[in-house]
Each structure stands twice: as C-alpha cells, then as structure tokens.
Design brief:
The structure is a homodimer.
Chain A: E1 5-9, H1 14-26, E2 32-35, H2 44-50, H3 55-58, E3 61-63, H4 66-70, E4 75-79, E5 89-91, H5 93-100, E6 105-109, H6 118-121, E7 126-128, H7 141-154, E8 162-163, H8 173-189, H9 199-213, H10 217-231
Parallel strand pairs in A: 1-2, 1-6, 2-3, 4-6, 4-7, 5-7
Chain lengths: ~230, ~230
C-alpha cells in the first residue's frame, strides 16, 4: 500500500502545523513536505499540538518551490474550498480515493488565510473539495487534512458495525422463546392484560421490544432472575 | 431533515470548544449542549477558534448532568477511541449514518484527557468509533467532531466527481478525430515515425494520451494553433 504525502504550501500557524502532524499520526501517514513555510516546524506550539507525533515534524522536508515539491509524484491532488476557473477534474474526498490506488500521490493544502492560488493549483493533476455548508465553507487546514486522511484510511478498513459481547454469547431464538413462555405465564397469572382481547396486540409488542434488545445468554438469565425476584 | 445535536461532556479547553463550533458551522449544525464544561464558552480563545461561528457558542445550552442533557433525545451515540466492556453496538461514522435518519440524535463527546467513562457511556444507545491508526489513536476532540459531521453531511450530498468547464464545452469525439487526422498528417510529413512498422503502436499511444486528456473544444483549437505555429 502506497501512502499519500502531505504537502503544505506556505503554512502560517505553528498550531495548525502541529495539528496536521497529529492527524497524520491518527491515520498512519508519515511523509510531510513544507513549501516556503511561514512558521517554524520546531516551534513549541507545533510540538504541543502534535500531541506525541513530533517525529513527522522533525522529519518534514523543506522545499523552495511547489514544482520541486511535487517533482517525484505521480499524481497531485490540490484542495480548494470553492470551484475555480481552471479546467480540472473535481472530486470529493470519497470519489478521489479510487484514483489514489497504486500511485505515489501528493495531497496539497494552501495557506490558511487565502488557500491555494490559481497559479499554485496549476501544478495539480486534479482537485479535491470537501462537501461543506456553502454559507460557512472555510475549514481549518488541519480539519481538511483530517477529513481527507480519514477517507484514505477508511478505504483500507472494513465498514461494518459490530456488537461488543466480551465474554458472553448472544442468545439464540430458542432461549428467547423459553423466556417469552415464562414471561407470558407470569403476566397471565397476575392478570396483566386486564381486557382479554387486548392481550394479543400487547403481547406482540412486548416480544418485539425484547427481540430488538437482542439479549445475550447472560442477560436472559438476569431477566429471569429479576422477574422471579420481583414476584417474591 | 433532522440535524444531530452535539453534546460535549466536561470539555476542558476553550480552543477546542471554539474549533468544535467552527466545524459545526462547516457542516450546518447549530445545536450545542455543554455538560459541566471546564472552560468558559465566552472565552476569547473559544471565539477566536470559532472563526465566525460564535452564534453556536452564544446559544449553547448548559446542563448539570448527562441524564438531563439527553432527556429529550431519541438516540444517543457516544464516541470512544477504544472498545469498552459494556455490551453495546459499535459503528464507524459511516455505518452509524443510516441509524440517524428521521431520529432526534445526540452525538456525545468526552473530556479531552480521559474520554468518556463507562458510567458516561451507559447513557448511550450505541457507540461510534472512528477507524484510526491503532498505534496513535487519540484524535483531537474537534477532529472527531469534524469526521462524524462530515459523514453526516455527506449522507445528504451527492458523491460524484465533476469536470469544471467554465464557459467551454467538452469536445465530442468527431472533433478529436479531425484533430487526430490533422496531427497524423503532420507527423507523417516530418517522418516522425522513423521506422514505418513502429507507427501503428506509437500512434495508438499518442491517441490514447489525447483521449485521456478529454479536451474541450477550445483546447482542441489551441492544439491546432500550437502545432501550426511550431510548424512555421
């Protein structure tokens, strides 16, 4: 797997540089290139915001021009908040991911105040723009890095929900049905339904609720215990 | 469309609170609830980091307990960096989205240093955990908010790449083929191919490159002009 390289053009604030370094660590990215930085990568504020990922700052490579910084890359995505005049392909972070597979890719971010100029953008193969609220579209630079690296990381990880079970096992339906029998008998005994013809609907709803619960074996035992304890 | 509500439990740093407010603005989210905040929502640092979205800080609601803060919600997602002992359903930001449709949902984030305790998590219906590098899994709180709100915003926006064309139109194939005829004639004239039997393969490759370019009508005219100019 080839990891993308982060390129920051004329980054202004050391805090943002540190926050980018932290985000890179969160998504396992280690190559950082700084083009004409306006702050010092060794600044204490950058180190504080890196929150333990100082290595990426220490190993950052410095460049005097964008052309040099992208020289060895196969594909350069520039990031912009808004659509520009240049005839370029625009992607969201998600739709950009398939284009990155197997390529040595640079992700280029502009200075905080102005973003990338059209001249800067001309070195880019394609553009990534993050879908945001059009009335408040200016993302913090580290936030933009996070979103794109999150998509990159996701493109390599499975996307399934899971139930944390620890030591216990999910109950099978038979165990639930035994429990339902037990519960129904108990409720019958205490004349819970009051009006007999309402029982069917009420009882369906109660079972539906317990089915949605998807209890574990242990939880079913706890439910038996609780009902028996209340009964006494 | 029902928008999620952001709940911050015992947030510590005003800068982070402001960064959360900015991120909420970026994705069009306006309801913020603060449970026992350890910093002042009116702090100048919070306002500076909000970068124009102070309204969300000014309108934030304060709560003394998590129970009160989630009281009117239909579904509460708590966020954690690691899997915990409680038997809960875990989702990634992406897999959580379908569960949010049509529900009044709260997104709960814990204090920066410790995250949410198991006691805090017990108010949650389900858990969201962001896929990250296991060796450096601690996301900044505002970064975690950004990632989840980005997924929420995406679930309402289309995911297609597009070509920015401005005033120009993409060339149709016929225009490309005329251009190819012109180019081939020019190259034949200057005996570009040298070895005749190599022409077929070389010419296929040249056409492939121009097809990948997907030029506009204007760009085709520019190409004609450039070749004619070079010829003179």
């Amino acid at each position: 797997m080839i990891k993308p390289i982060i390129l920051l053009h004329q980054i202004q604030l050391a805090e943002n540089l540190g926050a980018v370094a932290r985000a890179m660590g969160n998504f396992g990215i280690d190559q950082l290139r700084l083009i004409q930085p306006k702050c010092d990568p060794d600044d204490a504020k950058a180190f504080a915001m890196a929150a333990g990922n100082e290595t990426v700052l220490e190993n950052a490579n410095l460049y005097q021009s964008l052309e040099h910084a992208v020289g060895d890359l196969e594909f350069v995505f520039a990031t912009t908040a808004t659509e520009r005049e240049l005839i370029k392909e625009y992607h969201t972070p998600k739709t950009a991911m398939p284009l990155m597979i197997g390529k040595k890719v640079g992700l280029l971010f502009g200075p905080e105040r102005t973003g990338l100029s059209n001249e800067d953008l001309s070195v880019a193969t394609d553009i990534i723009t993050i879908p945001v609220n059009p009335d408040f579209s200016s993302l913090n630079i580290a936030q933009a890095v996070v979103v794109i690296l999150y998509e990159w990381f996701q493109s390599h990880t499975s996307q399934e929900s899971w139930l944390h079970l620890g030591e216990t096992k999910p109950a099978v339906q038979k165990e639930l049905h035994y429990f339902f029998k037990f519960l129904e008998t108990e409720l019958d005994e205490v004349n819970f339904w009051r009006v007999p013809h309402k029982k069917e609907k009420m009882w369906q709803n109660i079972r539906a609720a317990f089915l949605r619960m998807q209890p574990t074996e242990q939880e079913i035992r706890t439910l038996y215990g609780a009902i028996q304890a209340i009964k006494k």
